[in-house]
Design a protein that fits this description.
By secondary structure, this protein is an alpha+beta fold. Helices cover 30% and strands 33% of the residues. It contains six helices and 14 strands. The strands form four sheets. A four-stranded antiparallel β-sheet has the order 4-5-6-7. Strands 8-9-10-11 form a four-stranded antiparallel β-sheet, covered by helices on one side. Strand 4 and strand 5 form a beta hairpin. The longest helix is centred in the middle third of the chain and has 38 residues. It starts with a helix and ends in an 8-residue tail after the last helix.
Length: 326
């Protein structure tokens, strides 16, 4: 075959090859569809931002170091984390390391890298940064700015699923604007003045109660006198006792022929109790113990007991602020 025939045969083969190739519907300027096993950054971002772990971080916000100590100085919570009335306007709780807001804030993520998990099939590791994108001004004083995280995705027949995600928060606070710094300083000044006013009130209240306690120990009137049998003396001598409007002067024997006088302030009396065995009598319980009074008959005992009981009740009503609550 001549050289010319060879060229013609070659050309015919090329034409036949080209002519048998089906035409393509795609154009060179169209973006090819991503492969099924390709995890895009936008898909990873969407799934991470929809995760329950991220939503929990939107509700419970970490504090940067020592931020908790600023709350009491600004009048938002006390040293134990109990919210004040002012603090309850924005916060729902705090425990020293984190706080919760009345309404959740929002978080924005930025995917920083996607890679295959070594020695595993259909697994992707996604690294990302996250920041709080919306935060009330008062909460920005205490919250961290954001942090970073790590997520793992697994490929299923219907696409990529988020298997786990972890968040790490930084210790970097928000950068406060001049207006926000001024608001925080104003809250600190108001709280300092409130504490000064509270200290003045406490001092005035201590002085008032001290004066009231002093007045409660001054006898303004003698109610009656009664006689009480001496348990210990051989002569069974009756001893005079006095009841005033603020105390009882009880005379008793500390042993054979030894007498003692005990003045019992109503403020120290914790209770009264009748005695129904042996000689009729009753007990007066106070901080030092008790005082026992005995009578020659029940009628005298009941009369004296009623006098003491009524005088004690009247004193407690008059000086109710001095009576310890049960």
């Amino acid at each position: 075959m001549s050289r010319l025939h060879q060229l013609i045969a070659s050309f015919a083969g090329v034409v036949l090859f080209v002519g048998c190739t089906p035409p393509s519907n795609s154009s060179s300027d169209q973006t090819p569809e991503p492969k099924k096993d390709s995890l895009s950054r936008s898909e990873a971002k969407t799934k991470i931002e929809a995760s329950p772990d991220l939503h929990a971080l939107e509700r419970t916000i970490p504090m940067y170091p020592d931020a908790f100590l600023q709350g009491p100085r600004q009048g938002l919570w006390d040293s134990n984390g109990r919210l004040t009335t002012k603090g309850q306007r924005n916060f729902s709780s705090t425990d020293g390391l984190k706080f919760s807001l009345k309404a959740p804030t929002s978080i924005t993520t930025v995917i920083t890298g996607i890679t295959d998990v070594p020695l595993a099939q259909n697994l992707k590791e996604v690294q990302f940064d996250w920041t709080y994108s919306e935060m009330p001004s008062v909460a920005r004083r205490f919250a961290v700015l954001g942090g970073n995280g790590l997520a793992h995705f697994q490929l299923f027949d219907d696409g990529w699923r988020l298997r786990e995600v972890t968040f790490q928060h930084s210790t970097v606070p928000f950068v406060m604007s001049p207006g926000e710094r001024q608001e925080a300083a104003q809250d600190e000044a108001e709280e300092a003045e409130r504490q000064r006013a509270a200290a003045r009130h406490q001092e005035d209240e201590r002085a008032r109660l001290a004066a009231l306690a002093a007045a409660s120990k001054v006898r303004s009137g003698k109610l009656t006198s009664f006689f009480c049998d001496n348990w210990y003396s051989r002569s069974e001598q009756k001893l005079p006792n006095k009841i005033s409007d603020v105390d009882i002067e009880a005379i008793d024997a500390g042993g054979p022929e030894r007498w003692r006088t005990t003045t019992i302030w109503f403020g120290d009396v914790s209770g009264l109790a009748l005695e129904n065995f042996g000689k009729p009598g009753f007990y007066i319980y106070n901080k030092q113990g008790m005082v026992h009074l005995a009578f020659s008959n029940q009628q005298e005992r009941d009369k004296a007991f009623k006098l003491v009981e009524d005088a004690l009740a009247a004193w407690r009503q008059k000086y109710a602020e001095l009576v310890p609550s049960k």
